[in-house]
């Protein structure tokens, strides 16, 4: 590991200033992704700004829903009574996301910002536009079994590896930020993520120096609590990143689907929502046949690579099964 300067932030504004004033600085929270990347010489921060002790850990009802601190641990978030009762999809996704030990360390903000698990990204002997812009993409001609089906570019075919974000996007979550200029703002979580295009070294739309302060879940997303499910398909059931995952949420009233959310993981550089598949469900009875049609639509525009075509039938079955489980047909 390379030498770096350590700065302990006194508050959020100090932390943002300490990163903003030093190009190549990084925030340090749980460290469950960043420290691994530093050990592998992929991340080379010249300054680590420790925010792990800042009071951004509360989980509480607010004016418009549930406010969840960015520095609350994943384990505490998943186990919180209000999350379990009102947003069980989030609990399921967090539990699916990592081992108990990692959930105890990882923070919510860090979880949202975790970096791809493309094996070439981790192998500094290979070209990777995400790690070293302009060097090429080893996965395009290499083994790309775990890579993207949607939204990839010639520059990068990596997937976003998280689970928590898929559930949060399905639940219409927003994040609150402290920008480098000291301004606070909120934005839909879905807008944090981006496709790789020609600049895959940019994982998200978050400006340099901006700090995620918290996550807000709207009250009306609690209407999904009775009919939601997170399904993750992976090589090892115990602990692995998704080949395909899906967060589904249905609001069913009078035997009819009133609102639907389908957000897939492991298939794109960002949580991949299929509004076309959702639309197919709204106003209809929740039946297995309808769910299979929605799954077909969700993968209609998939563009497989040399080794990941298997994800299309797998993903369709995952979507249909998750919907059936959410509707309690399965
Ligand atoms: Fe790097 Fe993206 Fe290519 Fe993987 S897919 S080698 S992360 S550029």
UniProtKB/TrEMBL annotation:
Protein name stated in the entry: FAD-binding molybdopterin dehydrogenase
Top-rank taxon: Bacteria
Keywords attached to this entry: FAD, Flavoprotein
PANTHER family in alphabetical order: OXIDOREDUCTASE, XANTHINE DEHYDROGENASE SUBUNIT C-RELATED
Entry-linked InterPro entries: CO_DH_flav_C (IPR005107), CO_DH_flav_C_dom_sf (IPR036683), Diverse_Substr_Oxidored (IPR051312), FAD-bd_PCMH (IPR016166), FAD-bd_PCMH-like_sf (IPR036318), FAD-bd_PCMH_sub1 (IPR016167), FAD-bd_PCMH_sub2 (IPR016169), Mopterin_DH_FAD-bd (IPR002346)
Organism: Bordetella genomosp. 1
Alphabetical list of Pfam families matching this protein: CO_deh_flav_C, FAD_binding_5
Residue ranges constituting the FAD-binding PCMH-type domain according to the UniProt record: 1-222
